[in-house]
Amino acid sequence: MVTMDADGLIAALQKAVDLHQAGRLDDAIRQYDMVLDADPENVEALNFSALAHFARGEAETAAERLARAVGTRPDYGEAQANHGLVLRALGRMDDAVAALAQATALLPNDVEAPFNLGNIHLAAGRPAEAATALRTAVGRAPGHAPAHAPAQANLARALLELGDWPDALAACEQCLASTPGHTGALAMAGVALAELGESRRLATLLDFDGLVGAHRPPPPFGMADIGAFNRALADHVQRDASLAYEPDDVTTRKGYQSADLMADPKGPLGAFKAIIESAVAVYREHHPIEAGHPYLGQRPARWTLNAWATILEREGHQAPHIHRSAWLSGVYYVQLPDNVRDAVTGNAGWIEFGRPPPYPAARAEAPMQFYRPEEGLMLLFPSYMYHRTIPFDAGQRRISIAFDVLPSLD
Predict the structure, then answer these.
(1) pTM of the model as a whole
(2) How many helices and strands (H and E) does the chain possess?
(3) Given a cut of 80, is residue 269 above it in pLDDT?
(4) 182, 208 in Cβ contact below 8 A?
(5) What is the CATH number of domain 6-203?
(6) For the chain, where do the domains classified as CATH 1.25.40.10 start and end?
(7) How far is CA 265 from CA 224, 272, 273, in A?
(8) Pair 361, 162: CB distance under 8 Å
(9) H or E element in which residue 331 lies
(10) What is the Cα Rg of the chain in Å?
């Protein structure tokens, strides 16, 4: 056992923290362990070493050290907050709620603890409890600008679940005041406006004719026609190693989705990237900045692209969703089943804009518009517009490539 006096412990702990902040996790953990060998109940060393273990993917060790810290000093708010986050990562949600509730009470100026507490309640289907916690986070957020918009946006979602349309709209407006163009807030504002009967404001947000753009690119150099290019794209994406069937955290059902195709645009993807960039430039030219417009009032000066393939099979579809991190999104139709291409089965396989996910108290009929996909057609649309793919019944695959224009700070 290492022996240190009080000054030695302080110096050793500071060295560990310095190593930790420098990203030298292994060295930091060894140093924290030296402190804990000399003083096993040193709550700061337990707390910080837990964070180092957690960063290294060792959540169980982190949870054990944080349990020791809060067991030794229950009023240590930072350790309670960190314990809650680690417990959430381990799936121990009831324990995480208890720890974050303690942290919220112990840290009267902290935003993260009530924010994380509200998010757990929201994910668990407890919107009333979520709203209470998120209101606390919002009340503390003015002095923490980066936390303000996420707290307001998640509060709006909880209030939509409760059917509190006026307060949900107010939360969206507060979010947009601090973060103009916030994709989630624009989407949820549309839901609240529909329920409140504010048709004029809603029509500005869901201006399908004005804000959804169609683009039909010419074939890239070296391709005989757009059909040949589409066949090359279809062959390429169907062999993509990242394709996964119904991957977690996406809305694709009865189908496959790839990872980012722009990360390494090989083969026909290089030409496809150029097509997207050209289409985005045309969209920006046709949609200049319009002061006071909730969407056209601002747009990113710099941006990056990501894109992914979606391959749907019989009864394949996507549930209503938005693209939260993007400003502008799009979809290009590469290959369609015969009955979708020829529209012989109504609007099966079409894309629908406007329908939000269901909220228990919602009664309004949202404005909606359908677009028939065509091979070689690209649609561009604001990323906050809810959209879905309607299921289709066919033995052939429906292949499309979606993409996002992501604001860049670089």
Answers:
(1) 0.90
(2) 16, 10
(3) yes
(4) no
(5) 1.25.40.10
(6) 6-203
(7) 21, 9, 8
(8) yes
(9) strand 328-335
(10) 25
What is the share, in percent, of the chain residues with pLDDT greater than 90? 77
Q: At what angle do helices 77-89 and 43-55 cross, to 10 degrees?
A: 30
Q: What is the topology classification, in CATH, of domain 212-407? A: Jelly Rolls (2.60.120)
Residues 296 and 287: beta-carbon distance below 8 Å: yes
pLDDT of residue 61 exceeding 80, the answer is: yes
Q: 376, 374, 402, 380: which is closest to 262 by C-alpha?
A: 402
> Where are the strands (E) in 149-270, listed by range?
213-215, 244-245, 252-257
> What is the DSSP secondary structure assignment for residue 4, as one 8-state letter?
-
Taking the C-alpha atoms of residue 385 and residue 405, their distance in angstroms, rounded to an integer, is: 14
Token pair 């707390």 is found at 47
Q: What are phi and psi of 245, to 5 degrees?
A: -85, 125
Long-range Cβ contact pairs of 150-155 (< 8 A, separation 24 or more)? 150/115, 151/111, 151/115, 151/118, 152/178, 152/185, 153/182, 153/184, 153/185, 153/188, 154/115, 154/118, 154/119, 154/122, 154/130, 155/118, 155/131
- pLDDT one-digit tens code per residue, 121-172: 999 999 999 999 999 999 987 755 567 889 999 999 999 999 999 999 999 9
130's tokens = 């979520």
Confirm if 348 and 339 have CB atoms less than 8 A apart: yes
Mean pLDDT of 248-260: 90
Which of helix, strand or coil describes residue 270? helix
> What pLDDT does 1 receive?
57
